[in-house]
Specification:
alpha/beta; seven-stranded mixed beta sheet; 5 helices; 7 strands; 35% helix; 20% strand; globular
Length: 170
């Protein structure tokens, strides 16, 4: 009887360890997740000389930003232009879900944000990509359509993160 209990405990322990190890391996395999980029949306170009380029969707490296609003204290007040100018191999895609188009344009002009944005009033991008649905702003670093990290100009090491994103030796 004692021997049977010992066998049962041993088999149960082995099964539990295998299950835990299997779960951990699956977590590490899915470290990166694919990003879905809705393309059938309106592009807003504040500065008519700076046009949205649809080939940005196909770039190997991207910074993809979601913002619910473009109000005061929005992510559009950050210094994106420096990174956009410095890292020309990286496409910067900004999805904005502000429902009021006139308000969106007014606020982008107010903060002098001239990079084209993708107007997403139905929040398609958020539904497809943002796990924390309460988030109103998130920015992903993307390589080959896989989210590999997060970053924006408020991070002190943002440029370093962008350099690492395009570093082919990694």
């Amino acid at each position: 009887m004692l021997r049977d209990n010992f066998k049962f405990v041993l088999v149960l322990s082995f099964a539990l360890c295998t299950a835990i190890t299997g779960c951990n391996n699956k977590k590490s395999e899915s470290k990166f997740r694919e990003i879905v980029l809705p393309e059938n949306l309106e592009f807003i170009e504040i500065n008519k000389s700076q046009k949205f380029d649809k080939s940005w969707f196909d770039r190997k490296y991207k910074v993809v930003v979601f913002a619910r609003h473009a109000d005061t204290h929005s992510p559009f007040e950050l210094d994106w232009q420096s990174a956009i100018s410095e890292f020309q191999d990286i496409a910067f895609l900004f999805y904005v879900s502000e429902k009021d188009t006139a308000k969106l344009i007014r606020n982008l002009k107010k903060v002098n944000f001239t990079h084209p944005v993708i107007h997403d009033p139905s929040e398609e991008f958020r539904e497809l990509n943002v796990k924390g649905k309460e988030w109103t702003f998130i920015s992903y670093l993307v390589k080959e359509n896989e989210i590999v990290g997060m970053g924006n100009p408020s991070f002190p090491d943002f440029n370093k993160r962008l350099s690492e994103l395009i570093d082919e030796s990694k």
